[in-house]
Amino acid sequence: MTTDIQQRLTALTEQLHHLNYQYYQRDISEVSDQEFDRLLAELARLEDEYPQFAQANSPTQRVGGTVTKQFPTAEHRYPMLSLGNTYSEADLREFDERVRKGLEGAETAYVCELKFDGAAMSLTYEAGQLTQAVTRGDGARGDVVTSNVRTIRNVPLHLRPAGAPQPPEFEVRGEIFMPLPVFAELNQEREANGEAQLANPRNAAAGALKLQDSAQVAARKLRFYAYAFLMPGRAQFATHSASLEALSAWGLPVADTWRRCATLEQVLDFVHEWDQKRFELPVATDGIVIKVDDFRQQELLGYTAKSPRWAIAYKYPAEAGRTRLLAVQYQVGRTGAVTPVALLEPVPLAGTVVRRASLHNANQIAALDLRLGDLVFVEKGGEIIPKVTGVDLEARPEGSQPIVYPTECPACGTPLLRPEGEAHFRCPNDRGCPPQRKAKLEHFVSRKALDIDGLGAETVGRFFDLGLVTDAASLYELPAKAGQLAQLERMGEKSVQRLVAGLALSQQIPFDRVLFGLGIRYVGETVAEKLAAHYRTVEALAAATAPELAAVPEVGGVIAESAAAWFREPENQALVERLRAAGVQLALTGEAPQPQSDRLAGLTFVLSGVFEQHSRDGLHHLIEQHGGKITGSISKKLSFLVAGDKMGPAKREKATSLNVPIISETDLLAMLPAAGDAADATAATPGSAAAVASAAYEQGALF
Ligand SMILES: NC(=O)c1ccc[n+]([C@@H]2O[C@H](COP(=O)([O-])OP(=O)(O)OC[C@H]3O[C@@H](n4cnc5c(N)ncnc54)[C@H](O)[C@@H]3O)[C@@H](O)[C@H]2O)c1
Ligand SMILES: [Zn+2]
């Protein structure tokens, strides 16, 4: 008996630790939030009943997140906790009773706020200026992500001196989130690039905050809503609601959906009111947060190890429905990934009629033991794409057969491959498989690539089906077929003229967008920009080896391998030549950016670890701007290893054993001409900078 319980406790603890790791570290939800909360509640109940088995660092006692290794960390002045949560109104009534009891019957009021689903953020303002942004982390320490947060457009960098007086230093807490339309667009882009889809906007926001390059964070278009004010000592406001009003007046974005409720009945009204209305907002929400309004009462009620006793989150259960699985469709994407999609008998769910649902991949189908004709459960939670979560086994038709995942491409018959570590099967016939060819063409003409006026995805798809075009270069043969095109239904003379003009205009589209348009796996918009800027011509790019490509900022090993392999294929080389003949831009025009100085000429650098004053890419750029070179590996010939925070010990050892000087970011910056004295910069000899640094190194001043 006891061992059974002990085993269950251990199993639950392990499972929850694992789910927390996936969720906070890797931004993956393996189970629904509701399922997670059910498991956590079960563990709490067992620990309550058998306190002798409870562990000090049980998931019930700790905030789920941790700090990451990519950023410096900072301690929270006031711990950043989680919220108790519930899915039932009965629990809300209990919460209200506990509060009243705790306050010995004193009058109390609540503030109800929508629970935006993103990542919690703590902002510090000093003398009206944003000075620090820290993630929740493990509740006690978080990651310092100030430069990333500065890119969020509605986070004020300076406050307005309006409304209540501003304390010299205070903290604002709120949620960073990705607006739904931005999320949808990002996923479309990822699909086009052959990258895995992000499950929901929460994952997307949390993932974006962990990026090292702030410019990339800015491109994710995150937003912020403030929901709490904290200051040292006693707050200058008597109530939470008064502080929210002050935050608004100072220019901080407070969602205007909050409401003060004098009674629990009013709280429940608010909960009901937003049950459906929340789907009209351009932000993912997963519930309502209910807080005691009076700050002094909050203080009296206090905290548990994990959450305040004066607040609770009511979470809306994910909307689920039951419907019949009619068929499974296998879609082949641009990069050959095969995705199964469930075709369903239409069912209304969370404000829309659902006809299709994601089945993710073959594992999922097997795990669910899905069969055609099954009644299946479909859920639509924070995610936009509904998903099949289970099968109603009792209602299973007799004699049903399991779904057999195809072993051959449904479009071209090529045996499917499943690269190790990947969830998706893939059709390797990338040049012959019709849906892949067609999707590549659609990608080439798309808005962010060649943006060919008069040639949308649908038209180009139709041309492909009719055999009028076969690949990107063949598009430029269309003008010669103008007569034939004009005969097509819904085309006509005018549309053909527009198309011909559109093709001519596309010859002006810069090289980076052409490169993106080629649809090389993993070469998205940003990577294409970086590669084009670095190599300037397609010849130089095609001649680069994978390790060389990998040394370009933001181009990792996987991307580099993929790009190098692409340019090695004779067919792709031929395509490039045909595009050149068609007059498409295969080199950047205009002057290459001039180096700012040659201070670092002749010197080579390896950058390692996390840096404080610049991002790694920023430093890379700076070094090149001053004539230095970046390499990937430490060798005897290397001039300097620039060590940031958290550099691995192996690198340090290797550099030391090869007598390569190790310098810090500050030392590196000291080697550069100070801003403004560019004139004298070119006069300085590169040797002098090196001498300064190595002298410092010898004095032991650097490490
Ligand atoms: N599916 C999984 O595998 C998995 C794993 C771990 C956690 N989870 C989910 O995450 C939850 C735990 O996460 P959590 O600790 O971040 O708690 P939480 O998300 O339930 O609540 C706390 C958070 O709510 C946010 N919030 C939004 N609006 C707010 C407002 N107006 N006022 C205050 N806070 C507001 C803040 O970011 C705060 O940190 C679990 O209950 C579970 O649902 C799921
Ligand atoms: Zn195929």
UniProtKB/TrEMBL annotation:
Coiled coil start-end: 29-56
The keyword Hydrolase appears for this protein: no
GO terms assigned for molecular function: DNA binding; DNA ligase (NAD+) activity; metal ion binding
CDD domains: LIGANc
Binding site for NAD(+): 33-37, 82-83, 113, 136, 175, 291, 315
Catalytic activity from the UniProt record: NAD(+) + (deoxyribonucleotide)n-3'-hydroxyl + 5'-phospho-(deoxyribonucleotide)m = (deoxyribonucleotide)n+m + AMP + beta-nicotinamide D-nucleotide
Keyword line: Coiled coil, DNA damage, DNA repair, DNA replication, Ligase, Magnesium, Manganese, Metal-binding, NAD, Zinc
Gene Ontology cellular component list: cytosol
Residue ranges of domain BRCT in the record: 595-672
Residues annotated to bind Zn(2+): 409, 412, 427, 433
Enzyme nomenclature, EC number: 6.5.1.2
InterPro entries: BRCT_dom, BRCT_dom_sf, DisA/LigA_HHH, DNA_ligase, DNA_ligase_CS, DNAligase_adenylation, DNAligase_N, Hlx-hairpin-Hlx_DNA-bd_motif
Needed co-factor(s): Mg(2+); Mn(2+)
Function, as annotated: DNA ligase that catalyzes the formation of phosphodiester linkages between 5'-phosphoryl and 3'-hydroxyl groups in double-stranded DNA using NAD as a coenzyme and as the energy source for the reaction. It is essential for DNA replication and repair of damaged DNA.
NCBIfam families named among the record's database cross-references: dnlj, PRK07956.1
Family membership: Belongs to the NAD-dependent DNA ligase family. LigA subfamily.
Protein name: DNA ligase
Protein species of origin: Hymenobacter rubripertinctus
Gene: ligA
